[in-house]
Amino acid sequence: MTSDENNTGTITMGVAGKDVGGFDDAQLTRLRAEAREIVARYPRARSGLLPLLHLVQAEDGYVSPTGIAFCAEELGLTTAEVSAVATFYTQYKRHPNGDYTVGVCTNTLCAVMGGDAIWDGLTEHLGVGHDETTPDGKVTLEKIECNAACDYAPVVMVNWEFFDNQTPDTARATVDKLRAGEQVVPTRGANSVCTFKQMSRVLAGFTDGRADEGIGAGVATQRGTVLAKKNGWAAPAFPAEPKES
After folding, report:
1. How far apart are CA 149 and CA 220, in angstroms?
2. Residue-by-residue DSSP string for 203-222
3. Dihedrals phi, psi of 152, to nearest 5 degrees
4. Is the four-CA dihedral 126, 130, 132, 137 of positive or negative sign?
5. DSSP-derived secondary structure letter, 244
6. Smallest Cα–Cα separation from 101: which of 139, 56, 61, 49?
7. pLDDT tens-digit profile of 130-166?
8. CA distance 38 to 19
9. Which helix (H) or strand (E) holds 28?
10. Distance between CA 98 and CA 111 in Å, rounded?
């Protein structure tokens, strides 16, 4: 049997069938119903661990010891097994996250297009470094290896919504609005930015109705397809598979 102690001093047990401390009765009732809805999507219960981690992160704003123990209880795992997964993926936070995760891409293309200057400007402006949160709890800053939007470099993401073709000035203006409680509008995708907890719930598989908002693929993304159609370009066909004798 394994156990963890959360920051309130409550011991939470990580074996199926044991009570989980740290959540009140109303939270547990709701979370258990939602956890079973998640698990029902998969042929094996443990396959639901990733969305379940997002679910508890939506509750606490990070994957807390209580959340670890809850996942272990629901899936019949040990807390060590759950922690091994939670510590592998960077989207799972092991300490309280800000309301908005601001990720600055500093991979090759974004870096040479200005990503390094954006990062330097934000760290100085906010007074925090990688995976650190402003004192008001609003913004957690992250240095990202790739935001998967090289056609709009340099790119900044806020809770995984795209802010394309950024500059140090536009990035500073965005974080200032976030800290002031003002609405910011992504370049593509949803028409607004939700909080980190709300986005974690979406990643757990519970839609917020915003999936079809805004522009998906913009002009830069579609340029190759447009040129191919205009010039009659096509990828070579796959070689024929040998017929079975």
Report:
1. 10
2. HTT---S-TT-S-SS-HHHH
3. -125, 25
4. positive
5. P
6. 139
7. 999 999 999 999 999 998 899 999 999 999 999 999 9
8. 20
9. helix 25-39
10. 25
Starting at the edge strand that comes first in sequence, how are the strands of the sheet with 100-105 ordered? 132-133, 139-144, 100-105, 156-158, 161-163
Q: What is the pLDDT of residues 15-72, one digit of tens each?
A: 444 445 588 899 999 999 999 999 999 999 999 999 999 999 999 999 999 999 999 9
CA distance 232 to 165: 30
In contact, 54 and 203? CB cutoff 8 Å: yes
Question: Residue 98 in contact with residue 200, Cβ under 8 Å?
Answer: no
**Spatial separation of the C-alpha atoms in residues 147 and 111, rounded to whole Å:** 12
Domains present along the chain, CATH in parentheses: 3-86 (no CATH), 100-194 (3.40.30.10)
